[in-house]
Structures
1.
Amino acid sequence: FLYFIGRNKGSVQTMGILQDKRLWGAVVGTVALFAAYRVWKSGKKGKKSHNTAKQGLDCVVISGPAGVGKGTIIDMLQKETPGKYAFSVSHATRQPREGEVDGVHYNFVSVEEFERMIAADEFVEYAKVHANYYGTSKAALKKVSAAGKIAIVEIDVKGAKIFKDRVLGQLKCCFFFFTAPSLEELHNRMRKRGKDSEESMTKRLETAKTELDFIKENPSVYDRVLTNDNLDA
Ligand code: 5GP
């Protein structure tokens, strides 16, 4: 278009210009270019607002011993900010507890299936916790990301460390560790929850001790260590 104007500089024969095929070609070309620019720009705007909703955050990693109230905190987060977060559903080889739904709380799989997934490199991280396998699959994270939401990744401390190393520079994540005022308090909460046998509670309290030691030895894994001193507050 500019080329055409340059070539016709000084011309006052408007009608002559309008009859020139090259002018029409240039006008149509410019309009098409402008329309394409608007489409591209609106696409970019759409993407931008999508990121704004996530505020640049891809995931929130939450760890803490059994009975500390992670489930309550995750439920609150989702209720108070509807549509912003979605739970990344892990794979687990343990048996479902009463009320747990396959595909919602966990993807419950056999040890064989879990080991097949390990060999196929389908996990971002996995760990053996309380003698069972637990893992965050790449597919679970992709699902949350495709929905434009921030993933809530509830994993143990060893998994969190691996996760941090693997997503470094690729995803923006915040790491939180929740703890209780004491191990006795944790035991009380587990009893109150009533989901575990005495044997299972003992195992979980032992794991809690190792998790607290891990935090002391690896203070850089978590951005915040928070004490949940009042489960209902
Ligand atoms: P529970 O059997 O009580 O549901 O979970 C036991 C532990 O496994 C918890 O500490 C929980 O954070 C952890 N866990 C759950 N999902 C995952 C996962 O995908 N990866 C890892 N590493 N740990 C997980």
2.
Amino acid sequence: MQADIERVFFTEDQLAERVRELGRQISAEYKDRNPIFIGVLKGSFVFMADLMRAIDIYCDIDFMSVSSYGSGTKTTGAVKITKDLSHDIEGRHVIIVEDILDSGLTLNYLRSYLEVRQPASIKICTLMDKPARRQAPIHADYVGFECPDAFIVGYGLDFAERYRNLPYIGVLKPEIYQ
Ligand code: IMP
Ligand code: MG
């Protein structure tokens, strides 16, 4: 698997350090607000697990599953909710946790979907941000790293469901994408 990687963009140490910083910042800003973190499956599961252990205030954790991608590298724009929340979020402070904000179509849809349930607030925390590719009017409140306009894998991010278990983030050799 490691042999498929052409270049490492973010090492394990860089990811760990940045995730701890985000955890400290969110913990300070949400103290006494009992936030609910909503992880967007599957891509966010590794980030979510590390981020939650860097949060040291009372909070709830839930997950949703949406699919906007087939096995390719381009968005279709269509978003389908395949697993909904198990919590009531009315009056709650919600933080959506995503792996990567690319076109923004997924999060734009998800945010409107959650707003209907009348939470007290909604913020977005994404590990990776690719602002150059934005199509929907959405920005993240907490960003791990801005990343280059390349299709990246690892630390939860997949290509055709593979490579989520890589402990770092990198780009595949071109022949793998073909
Ligand atoms: P958006 O709706 O275009 O913002 O797409 C967001 C989703 O597309 C992410 O949650 C990922 O699942 C997937 N995605 C976008 N860019 C990448 C990438 O570079 N690598 C892996 N998955 C990606
Ligand atoms: Mg995703």
